[in-house]
Give the backbone structure.
Amino acid sequence: MSKSHYLSRICDSELQSALATMGAALIEGAKWCGKTSTAANVARSTLFMQDPDSARSYREMADTKPSLLLRGETPRLIDEWQMSPVLWDAVRFEVDKRGVPGQFILTGSATPADNVTAHTGTGRFARILMRPMSLYESQESNGTVSLAGLFDGKHDIESVSDLGIEQIAFCICRGGFPATIGKPDAAALRMPVDYLEAVINQDISQVDGVEKNPNRVRLLLRSLARNIATMASAQTVLKDIESAGTGISDKTFAAYNNALRRIFVVEPMPAWSPSLRSKTAIRTSSKHHFVDPSIAAAVMRINPAGILQDFEYFGFLFESLCARDVRVYAQHNDGDVFHYRDKSGLEADMIVALRDGRWGAIEVKLGNRQIEEAAENLLKLKEKIDAGKVREPSFLMVLTGGQYAFRRKDGVFVVPIGCLKN
């Protein structure tokens, strides 16, 4: 993508900040999520390690004299650096030698094994995780409600989303891969399917060089898709796979799941463990999520029309869409996203926790009929938190697929996903 056609990303400012303070920046994330375009937008020279005309010679040079590959105007982009992991140590050494910030940008769509580099890069590399585009980045959310604003006490919200239910179903199936934005519907919906097939037949085996059975990979992904936005146990997933007539051992499941994490396909949401007034047991299992909801739709072979026929599953996919977007927005605000559930069944689909101690709780509801129950749950959670050890929440929010953004009389915010931004 040329710089004139570049769609701005929320992490652009994060990259600029990294280059102003550190010798090198590492952008990692799923294939096709826009890492190269974002890096190339600010780079002054580029090395494409996967260039089919030069990849072999680049790898040979990296094995003999990697410093030659680092020559060029700065910041110099080294795309898919993990193709020759020795480049990591070469960049670290060059950063130390030059002693000035903003020298290199590395991008990677897979995490190499822990033992392939001699040094961690601490103090030299700033790490940036890039996810597929949020609805605000793809210009489908109008961005009239800011997550940062809610944390800062700007609570007077009144807005209307232009994103209807049919459009939300389409956005789930198309996903947030930049190359799909603005394409004809049929072509846009095809890309997540192609992405899925590449994961199953190539990427998951290439990440660690261990051949994996494509049928088992597909069944694992399908089970994770069936259980999306839930805390289904490993045994539940294994039984689901076995019901299709294919057995898979615990060891194989762990290996496949780890490989999916290393190529940024799955991104489980960890549990939040706050200080409570009572001794209520908190569930510690992670929630199943893909890095983009379109992966679940692709593996389940479901299109927007199919989603609209299954409103219950639509709700789970919608929660995963919201999880993707909120993670993008939270990262910009130096925060992380968790979920909460205790033994009494009280839950919050997302807890946005900033590193300065502020936090907010979010319940996700596709339709308007469940807003009242969701608001009551959030207020109950607020009462359970020990205010002597944890701050009062900055906000309580019901994130919806509806039209109107407003503040209820009880202080709970109702916000359509088509209004939210970072």
Summary: The chain is about 40% helix and 15% strand. The first strand starts at residue 24 and ends at 29.
